[in-house]
Every structure is written in C-alpha cells, then in structure tokens.
Amino acid sequence: MSSPTISTSSYYSTSVASTSSMASHPSSATSAYSTSATRSPSSYKPVLSKSSINPHVINVEYAVRGEISNKANNYAKLLSEGKKESAGIKFDSVVTANIGNPQQQPYLAQKPLTFWRQVAALTELPYLMEHESTRAVFPEDTIQRAKALLADVGSVGAYSHSKGSALVRKHVAEFIQERDGYPVDPELIYLTTGASGGVQLLMQVMVAGPDSGVMIPIPQYPLYSAALSLYNAQPVEYQLNPFDDWSLDVQAMSKSIDEARGKGVDVRACVVINPGNPTGQCLSEDNIKDLIRMAHEKRVVLLADEVYQANIFQPETRPFHSFRKVLKDFSKSQNAEEASMADEVELISFHSISKGVSGECGRRGGYFELCNISPEVEAEIYKLASISLCPSLQGQIGVDMLVKPPKKGEPSYPLYKAETEAIHKTLLQRSEKMAERLDKLKGVSVDPAQGALYLFPRLELGSKAVAEAEKRGKKVDNFYCLEMLDATGICVVPGSGFGKMPDEETGECWFRTTILAKETDEFIERYGKFHDEFMKMYGGDL
Amino acid sequence: MSSPTISTSSYYSTSVASTSSMASHPSSATSAYSTSATRSPSSYKPVLSKSSINPHVINVEYAVRGEISNKANNYAKLLSEGKKESAGIKFDSVVTANIGNPQQQPYLAQKPLTFWRQVAALTELPYLMEHESTRAVFPEDTIQRAKALLADVGSVGAYSHSKGSALVRKHVAEFIQERDGYPVDPELIYLTTGASGGVQLLMQVMVAGPDSGVMIPIPQYPLYSAALSLYNAQPVEYQLNPFDDWSLDVQAMSKSIDEARGKGVDVRACVVINPGNPTGQCLSEDNIKDLIRMAHEKRVVLLADEVYQANIFQPETRPFHSFRKVLKDFSKSQNAEEASMADEVELISFHSISKGVSGECGRRGGYFELCNISPEVEAEIYKLASISLCPSLQGQIGVDMLVKPPKKGEPSYPLYKAETEAIHKTLLQRSEKMAERLDKLKGVSVDPAQGALYLFPRLELGSKAVAEAEKRGKKVDNFYCLEMLDATGICVVPGSGFGKMPDEETGECWFRTTILAKETDEFIERYGKFHDEFMKMYGGDL
C-alpha cells in the first residue's frame, strides 16, 4: 500500500550505489547521459554485420525464394510500373512456376473452394448469419459449421490453445482415423502455421548440436536442409533414383546411417516426402514398410511430409499410403518383433492446407501428428509451441475444412464436389500435357508426375553450356534457369536448389516447375521456344 | 528423352554396388528389408527423450502458458464437461487473466471492430461485393479497401511476398511517417506473425553462440528470455524500479554492459518494452534519449517492443514516444556526434495487431521496421523470413486496418470512432478501478497503469506464506497464484514468470493480471475475497 522511501542517485553521480533496481528515474528535463565517445561520426561500425551475426543463418540456402525468384519479383515490379520498354524486358508477364501457390494472380489463379470461403467469411463477420439479406447467400451447413467453430474458439480474433482449437484437432483425429482405420488422440495433434511451421519447430526440438544428423532425400524440398543449417545439425543425404520413379533404396539408406554414425554423426531422424517434392513419386507400400523396419532397427525417428497426399495422379497404380497406416498395420503381424514396431517407431506426420485442391497457402494452416513420441518430449514440444502462442485462426479453420469437407446430402456437397473434381481434373490434364510435350523437346526427359504439383525434368545441356555457365560463375542449371527467366519471364527452380547437383561435365541437370500455369499451352510454347534457342546456342556438341 | 540402362541390385544382395542413386526399386511385392534385431520388443528405447533432444529447448521457460495456465485449461475443460461437483471445483468459470487476449469468450469478450471484420469478410468471399443483397451490408469504403488489398495480394489464399504485401508495407511506412515525421522505406518493413514471430526471427539472426548477450528488462515479457534460452545466448538483465514507475536507469544499464563484457559476454542488443509489459510504464522522452546515447556509445542494437503504443492511459503526462522518432530527432542536434546517431544507432521496432483496441490476436499479424541495419544483414533477414514463406494473409490485412483506419468523412468513420473510443474508455475505467480497489487490500500495492493491458501488483505476503510455499516446493508467488486459481478460477502469472523474483524472506512478490475481465466488479470481489482469506491464513506475522 505504501512504497518504502529509498535513497536516490543522480545520473551524474559516478558512484551509483549498485546496478540495483533502486536507482531513481531522473525528473530533470535535460539529458543526463553524456556520451564519452571521441571517435568521428563516420567511424561508427554497425553492431550487426555478416561477420557478427549468427553464422548458421548465413549458411542457410533457400532456393525456392532465392536469386532467380528475387529477379522475377523485380521483373514483375518493373512490368507493373509500365517499364517493359525502358528496362528492355522481353515478355509481358512473369510466371511464378517456382512455388506451389495455386491461387496466385494472375497467371495461376486457381479459384478457392466456395465452402471454405463461405465458412471463413461467416467466422469473420458472424452477423452475416443473422442478417436476413445475407443469410440467403450462405447454405445452412456453412452456417452450422461457422457456429460450431465459433463456439469452440470464441472469435477468430482470439488466441486459441497453443496446440490449436480442440474442435479442429478432434476433426483431424477423425479424419486420420477414417483414412487409416486406427484411432488417434487429438491431444497429439498440433495445428501449425502451414507444414513449414511444424517442421521448423520439430527440427529445433530434435537436433542437439552439430553432431546431430537427419537424413534428407536428394532431391529434397529445401526447407529441410535450411532448417538443419539453421539449427546447426548435419544433413545425411540419401539419393532418390531418377531412373526408377525416384524410388528410395532402403538398403543403401541403412548403409549410409552406419557410415554417418561411423564418422560420429548421431543420426536421429529421417525425412521422407511422399508424394515427393520436387520429384512427384508416390512410395509403394513395401517401400514404406521397409523404411519403417529400418527406422526401428537403426533407431531413427520418421518425419513423413505428406502435404501432397491429395494430389495423386495415378490412384490405381500409385496410390497414396500414409506412413501412419503402414506403421499401425504392423500391429497385425504374426511376428512379435514386427508387431511391436507399431507402438515403437517414432513417427511424425505433416499435412497442410496449402496444397491438395484447396491451395490455401496464404492462410498458413497445417498440422502434425505425433505417434509413439514419449510424453516427456511431447511436453517440450508443447512448451515450444506455446512461445508462438497459436497458429492463425483462419489457418486453423482451413484445417477444419480440409479434414471435414461437406458430405453427401449436405447442402454444400454438390458444389464442393463439382469444384474439387474440376481442380483434380485440371491438375491431371496439365501435368500430363506438360510432361508429354516437354519430354519431346531435344535434351529434355520427364516422366508424368505420380503426385504433388510439380514436374522435375532432366536436361542434357552438353559441355558447351557448362563452359558458358562456368564463364559466368554459375552452376549450369542456374545459368539455364536464369536464361529462361530473362527470355520468357518463367521462373522455375534449378535442381541444385533441391540438392540435385548438375553433372558439370555432361551438363546433365534438373529443374522444378509447378504444373499450375493456367494457360498450359502458352506456357509450354513459351518455354519450348526458349529451350530450342538455348540448345541452338549452347547445345552444339550434342 | 531416354533413360540410360543401369544394373539393378536386389535388397537381398549384401554387396550393394554403392549407396548411389542407381540402385533399383524393388518390384517384388514382399518385404525385402530383414530386421536383424534380436532384442525383445519391450527393450526398445525411444530415440527422442528429455536427455537426447535439444538441451536449449529443455532450458526454455514460458510462464504465460506454464503450469498455472495448464491447470486453468484443465479446470475449464472439466467445467465444460459438467464436472464441477465431481471434481470439487469451487467456481463456475475460469478467468484467463494470464494473457492479453481481449476477444476471448466468454469472460473477456471484447467486440471486434466492425470495419476490420467487414474488410476481412470481403477479402474471404469477394463475391459479397458484387451480390446485391449483401452489398448493402458493407459500406463503400470497406469495399474499396478490400478491392485494393485483393488487387495487391491476388487472393487471401495465395502466398504473398515473404516480407508481406507491398501495399500493406507501403501503408505501414505512411503510418510511421505520419506518427514520427520522418520518411520510411517500405522495403525495410517486414510483416510478421504477430510481434512474436518477428522477435524470434531477429533474435535468431542477432545472436551468434553462447557468448552473445542481449539485455532484457526485469521484469520482462518472457518471450525474450525464452528466445535467448532457445538460441543459446545470454540474457543480461537490467532492473526496472518498482518504486519509481518502473523506470530504467541508463547509467546502471551502461555499467552492466561493461560488467558483462568484462566477463566475456558479447552484449549486442538491448530489448526495451515501451509501454512496459508486465509493468505498464511509458518511458519519458529523456529516458529514451539517454538509452539511444548509451546504445551508440556501447554499440548495442535497440529492440523496441512497442506493441502497446495505442494503449495509453495518461496521454497528457505519460504519452507514448516512439524510439524511431526520438532517434531521428537527433538529426536536428547541433552536436555533430549526436546528429550522427540518427543514422547510426541500429534500431528494430515491433508492432502488433494483437493489442491496441483491435485485440486481433488470433489473426497473428504484426510488423517490424529496420532502421540503420546494414543491407548485408537485411539480406540475411529476408532469407530467413522466406523459409517460412509469408505471414498469414488475414494477419497482413489486419496490419493494413491497424495502420490505415477509416478517416473522417469516410462512411465507416463514425462507427469506427464510436467503437474505438468506447474500448479505450472501458480499458481506462477497468484499469483505474482495478488499481484503486486492489491497492486498498491489505498487503497489496499497485499503481494505475500508464499503458498496456496489465496491472502488476506488489504483494507483501509475509514469512508464514513463504514457509508454507517452501513446504510445497513452490516459489511464494507461484504458491499464491495457484491458490488463487484453485479458489477463484482466476488465472494470473506470478512475477517470477517475468523474472521478477520474490523475496523469499519477507514474501514480497508480484503477479500480473490483465485488465480485460468484462465484469470488473465481480473480478475484484472474487479476487479480494481470496486474498483476504489467504492473508488470514498465511499473513499472521504481518
């Protein structure tokens, strides 16, 4: 009720009693802190420089938004400012085929799913549900869904639980159970800021210093290598086979774990991207089984990046198998050792609203599910998640839409069905057409994608291109992709950005393009013309 | 166009040619990877355990969502399941006064600003703009704003630039310029996932190993200490004076930098929270000037957490001064050394949509602005930001609402003005009433807040309470707050959660409560009754 009287000390006093909390605030209006520096103004050296900041940040590489993407952004800016002529730009629009961002305008422009957006709008402005003139716009099931979500989260302007809304997590658990046939504990589901947010969080938990290693596929989505650089741990690479549907060789992976451990790398986890990114393959059930056996034998945690699980192009021959289902199926094994794996192999699976047919990247929603992770570690994961408070509420609501779409008989179902089928169909057509047409170009080989949103063509550019790239101080795939951008405005990512290095003798290399461009024919023509000219100029030795 | 023929090797083969990418995918339908393990199932030791994961994660403490908060969540769950009687719960509702979450239902329930939500709903479902029946609901300026935002971002379902929407960043720059009177480069503004996302990102960039130090106030918002634990750097504490409006003593801070450097700690930056959290003080312009002089002399980067800049309760006597304005004002100094500081002192300022009068925590929006940060470091910050792709689009749109509210003459202005004034008034009234009433309780002293959304009462609990807490293995403030929760359902954060430790002899300690409870009188009564009973039980020696 009363403050103790304390002795005050002035800023001018050189004998401040202590660095204690008791020193008084100056009531004088003039400045009291005199600068004793004698250097001239120009000699000031900033505290933060490339040599003083976190070296692990410097080491990070992230090509999906690297040099080529920055250059593309700059082209787009110049074009929007009407500077095409003055800047000598050879095209009218930039095509951002470097990133799976389906709703990007104007060149991709996939339409959002109506059901998703109706529910989102109602949660933003709940009085639309009450307002007679607007209520007619919203089918009854969107209103019911919005009400249920708001009853759980209160408001989309409120922080939720750090794991995310309890209702949405319950729906995720139901979705996984329906997909896989095994029960799921909603408490082990964490909603995240896209899948990326979850991957970064878990990498940070799992690695414990520079000797920790995590296996990553080559080629890989560069988030994984970037996170490993950032958290100062070792990537332990395993190769996907470009000549056999980018399959993985479990025996070889097992061997590389032994080799890495022999060198003192504490290999703790293995990232698997299925369907693959950038490669688009769908792993066979046997391949996954073998991976699980290996994870058990070698004691590594499996990180299953399954964000493209709804982008499947050959469902009959190459369906999606979730790691969780294949793992839990081991419980039915007659072999006790194998059966025990179902409850022993540590598995973390990721999913996202950014891909699939929703393509709602901008909401930043996703989830991960912990399987066989010890409660003490789960507590640490929760603590770390809580520092970021919670994922965005519209991201969480997006997850609800993803895992609990309209069902047959509900008012929104017919439109939802028509919209999603159309997107699936379009993506399949584009993917097939692009693969077929690109594969016909001289020096380009590409298989149709089994899944995901990309093609990953292999190029044979020849030694002349390599020599020219070298002259410009570039890897040959970088050189090719930069030339493509300059000539066409098409922005793609070189294979080396995914760790798939070019052969610097023959010029064999790769690039990733999305299959999202709206005007597929125009895209193919624009690219094909560039490629032919490039090969005329540099492919002379082929 | 054709794949080279390769030799295949079976999984059974022990002499795999290499760990190369050429090994074939098995076409056999049976499993090929044999487990050689001989251990019994029960002997499996999980890879991830408290002793194997990142020790820096283990070290993190985050009390805002710690033990007490978890217990409160559990109470809320039991109450919602109708288990009040069976669980022996003594109250009917949990009051989450532990976190500034104004829109949380049902106990806080601050209403969202209509303008914000109208624009958000239109960006979610743009056809509402075209639809005649709904258009009437939306004032013309909300439609114009939504159109302008959509023209820039394309869709709220698309990734934006990793720095955030160019249009929103332009508006942020205009807001800062209008506030401070100095031009701002939109390219140096990064939109973030709340302010927390920006703080975590920049901490990660700035610290470079265990000898790096960052000054943090005591008491402090625990995000800062948590981030320093996580990135394995040293907190260098400076004390705020509880008996002089939580002022900071620049001379003492300067001395502690010297002391820390003397011990080998590379002190690089200094966090200042203004208005203070948990303490609510607004720094005087002179205090800020001195801090800037000190930052220049001692070469430390200033991190100005200004997320409560719009929550000011004594605008005449304790206005908000932005660090950026005070820094840039030095350019007018006659003293060349002082004038040079305006372009030399490295300053990063944070703002958020979660506080103020919007309280839109769940959208996860905020920004930081880089001032005098070298371009080479800025490039690294950009690279790191790009790994997370972009902040949520509705968070970005929230920032647009924050920095560019309706102006006089625009259709939404009257309602916006009425809503924001009412919220300001309510917060002021609650804050004053709570401070006045709590201060009258025996053993409680609390000053009215100058800013932010909290009170930080000082308690004198006495030695008997300390002894009882010790018996239970708790700090005395933790004991008090847990007892409060058990008795009343009110969830607050003990001072030690902010680094303000209790005096374990006299029982002097602190707690933070938000001022957000809707039923202020009821809150005060509930709390007061508990406190009196606590003091009757444990305050016997006072």
Automatic annotation (TrEMBL), chains A, B:
The keyword Transferase applies. Keywords: Aminotransferase, Transferase. This is Alt1-alanine aminotransferase. It comes from Violaceomyces palustris.
